[in-house]
Amino acid sequence: AQSVTQPDIHITVSEGASLELRCNYSYGATPYLFWYVQSPGQGLQLLLKYFSGDTLVQGIKGFEAEFKRSQSSFNLRKPSVHWSDAAEYFCAVGARTGNQFYFGTGTSLTVIP
Amino acid sequence: DTAVSQTPKYLVTQMGNDKSIKCEQNLGHDTMYWYKQDSKKFLKIMFSYNNKELIINETVPNRFSPKSPDKAHLNLHINSLELGDSAVYFCASSHRQVNTEAFFGQGTRLTVV
Question: Closest Cα partner for A57 from B17, B27, B99?
Fold first, then answer.
């Protein structure tokens, strides 16, 4: 069965510091992988996605993620965090046959001045 | 132009009532979903419809009944509301056959009192 694990429930970083959010997935085949961000009171906005090809993908707002098949991971990174990045971040896996999207439990990011 | 729109944004109602949440997408997608986000931010898929046909029906009480009059609309009707139904409900849509992500609405915060 497919599943997504985000080991960090909450992360606090200083503004300007680098960020890495972890995501591990379990899936029977190569999945589609996504990172979404949810600001307070808002819906989910796609940050980036991986379908195939280059394992390092660039997204919006300066985010990137690296797909590592051997580790079943898809970690999200940003070299310098801004206060506006404070939000909830969700990793998701999507099936290649038929559309099913399954989400991790989310990581809440706090940015301190 | 809003891609996936839900109404209402907020819904407060008493236990035992019946309520509906409407969702419309103008993206030309053929698959639509309902997700429930609980107080811990966990996103759980409830239903998935493809071209008005029910594809996924997770373990959701039968008090929840999705209705898809056409592929641009997926409404959620909830009978005999319970306190535990309080959550944020998200509608989403995607293409089934195309490599793409799910697009989300802004959510409906349902509070049952």
Answer: B99
Of B40, B42, B56, the CB nearest to A100: B56
Taking contacts as CB-CB distances below 8 angstroms, the residues of chain B near A105 are 40-42
Interface residue of A2, A11, A38, A44 to substitute, partner B, most B CBs within 10 Å: A44
The conformational region for residue B52 under phi > 0 = left, psi -120 to 50 = alpha, else beta, is: left
Q: What is the pLDDT of residue A29?
A: 76
pLDDT tens for A80-99 read 999 999 999 999 998 766 56
Nearest CA distance, B81 vs chain A (angstrom): 23
Sign of CA dihedral B44, B49, B50, B56: positive
Distance from C-alpha of B44 to C-alpha of B35, rounded to nearest angstrom: 5
What is the distance of C-alpha B58 from the center of its chain?
13
Q: In the prediction, which pLDDT does B100 show?
A: 80
A98·B101 Cβ contact <8 A: no
User: Which residues contact residue B7 at a Cβ distance below 8 angstroms, ignoring those fewer than 6 apart?
Assistant: B21, B22, B108
Q: Minimal Cα distance from A103: which residue of B? A: B43
Portion of chain B with pLDDT greater than 90, in percent:
70
Task: Give the closest residue to A103 by CA, choosing from B40, B55, B43, B91.
Answer: B43
A101 closest CB neighbour out of B4, B102, B107: B102
Task: Dump pLDDT digits (tens) for B68-77.
Answer: 999 899 999 9
pLDDT, tens only, B39-51 = 888 999 998 888 8
